[in-house]
Design a protein that fits this description.
Elements (H helix, E strand, L loop, with lengths): L18 H4 L5 H8 L3 H7 L14 H14 L3 H10 L1 H6 L13 H27 L27 H16 L6
Helix pairs in contact: 4-5, 5-7
Length: 182
């Protein structure tokens, strides 16, 4: 069942501290949160939810916000959920007006949300990101971080390296028609 994203309230609450009054308004996450048109995501993704039955879902703004923060900060699903709990800027970015000390969702719910919105949903998020950055997103040069590229090398400490080298020598010996020394 779809849970509508609640807009950030301007009314004070006696029992909970309001996030916006305590955060730096010039922070990039606050500015980005105020720039994004979040209703576009609500309108686009509400078709993937049942309106009247099932367990209430997490707000769409929360899930889209967590996906954006995951990509911005290069975090895993588990890490972005944990950082949400610790960081009030993340909470404001995801639409919370009061500080929430607990986890917003389980990390596996992000996996389910990604499957639910599919490729079209990701394209919508990507188009919004490109539209926000304008000409900066359409640069001709792209930097690629290759520090995590897998390399096809074998270290000398590998236990099967002597076996591989002796097999290679035996096959080379048969190709060259050499006699083995005894």
């Amino acid at each position: 069942m779809l849970t509508k994203s609640s807009p950030i309230s301007t009314q004070s609450n006696l029992f909970h501290s309001e996030l916006f009054s305590q955060l730096d308004v010039k922070d990039p996450l606050i500015q980005l949160a105020n720039t994004i048109n979040w209703t576009v995501f609500d309108d686009a993704f509400e078709q993937h939810y049942s309106q009247d039955n099932g367990r209430p879902s997490k707000p769409i703004r929360l899930m889209v916000g967590l996906l954006l923060l995951k990509q911005l900060e290069n975090l895993s699903d588990e890490r972005v959920v944990l950082q949400f709990k610790r960081n009030p800027y993340y909470q404001y970015f995801c639409g919370y007006s009061n500080y929430m000390p607990g986890m917003p969702c389980n990390a596996t719910e992000l996996v389910h949300f990604r499957k639910r919105i599919g490729v079209k949903g990701f394209n919508l998020i990507f188009k919004m990101s490109v539209a926000l950055h304008g000409k900066q997103a359409q640069e001709s040069s792209v930097l690629i971080d290759t520090t995590v590229q897998e390399k096809n090398i074998t270290t000398p400490l590998m236990p099967n390296l002597p076996l591989k080298s002796s097999i290679a020598l035996i096959s080379w010996q048969s190709v060259m028609a050499l006699k083995r020394r005894t």
